[in-house]
Structure formats: structure tokens, C-alpha cells
Amino acid sequence: MKTRSIAFCLGLTLQALGGCQSAYYAAWEKVGVEKREIMVDRVEDARESQEDAQEQFSSALEEFSALINFQGGELEDVYDRLSDEYEDSKAAADEVSNRINKVESVAEALFNEWEDELERYQNDNYRRSSAQQLRDTRRKYETMLSAMRKAEGTMAPVLRKLEDNVLFLKHNLNASAIGSLESELTVMQADIRILIRNMKSAIAESDAFIASMK
């Protein structure tokens, strides 16, 4: 069962802790949820946000393509739809960043705890085995995080272009304005293809990491 299924039960406790991360994780541990489980949950959440972002940016591209092929009707309605796609894309990008940051937070806590606990071993063979497992886990995590951050970084230029086009259309609600945006479509298509490719790579790395942690 995912940890968020009991999050409501801890709500008041965590509010009382004032957001301190060490106290936050300690509260979860008191109900039997270790940092390892929280990390897996957060990686799963980050993967889901990346999947959502893929779909949202694809939707924005479809709306932009429809704008370029505008054949008549209310231009203001077209602008409103594209503006909504931009806002939804920005929200999706923010959610991806937020979820990745949460993964980093729990990863740091987990690895620091693991390092400290190595010193508590009395059995040298156990210590060496655990230290090797830590190195392997950290390496897989860093590979995954790098893929996540790379995908995250490809969203910013697309958002900037979307915003520019939305603003230009807002200030020039006429058919000639749409014609001047046509050259942007090819660039947008290329950028979103790169974004989706990087998102898929990050999702694959997330799946591999989750599998290694279970």
C-alpha cells in the first residue's frame, strides 16, 4: 500500500512538526514506513507527473497546430484555448519539478542514514556488503536523477516559446498574426519531440530504479 494512503492519519502530527524533514520522516517511521518506501513512492509520483507532462505538452502542440491551420471563426476563442494550454503546461512543468525535488529530499535523508548505520555493524562482511549495496543504489539513483533533470530542463524552452506565442496572439488578434506564427510550428514540434524523448528516458530510468528497490 502506498504511503499516501495513510497520509491523512498523519496530517495533524506533521503540521505540528512545522515541516522539519527529520521529524517528518521520524513520524512516518513511527507508523512503520521507512525512508526507502517513501523514496519509492516519490519516484513513482515523479514518474506519473512526467507522464502527465508528456500528454500535456503534446496537447499544447496539437492546439498550436490547430491555430496555424485556422480557417475562420472567433480568434478570441482560439487564443483562449492556446492560453489555457500554456497555463496547463506550466502547471505540469511545475509539478514535475516539485516531485523531483521531493525525490532528492528523501534520497539525501536515506543515503545519509545508510552511511551512518554502516558504522554500527560489528560484522565486517555485513558492513562491506551493505556498503556495496549503498554504492549500487546511489549509482542507480544518480543515473535516474540525471535523466529526470534533463527532461525537466527541456520543458523551460518550450514554455518560453508557448508564452511568447500566446502573448503575441493576445496583442494581435487577427489572421495576419496567425500567419506570422507559422514559422514557429516547426521549431515547437522539434522541441516537443526532444522533450517527449527525454521524458520517456526518465520514465524508463524511474521504472528501473523502482524495480531495483523492491
Automatic annotation (TrEMBL):
> Coiled-coil segments, which residues?
36-151
> Which Pfam families does the record match to this protein?
DUF2959 (PF11172)
The superkingdom listed in its UniProt entry is Bacteria
Which key words are in the record? Coiled coil
Q: Does the keyword Coiled coil apply?
A: yes
Name this polypeptide is given: DUF2959 domain-containing protein
Please name the source species.
Answer: Alteromonas aquimaris
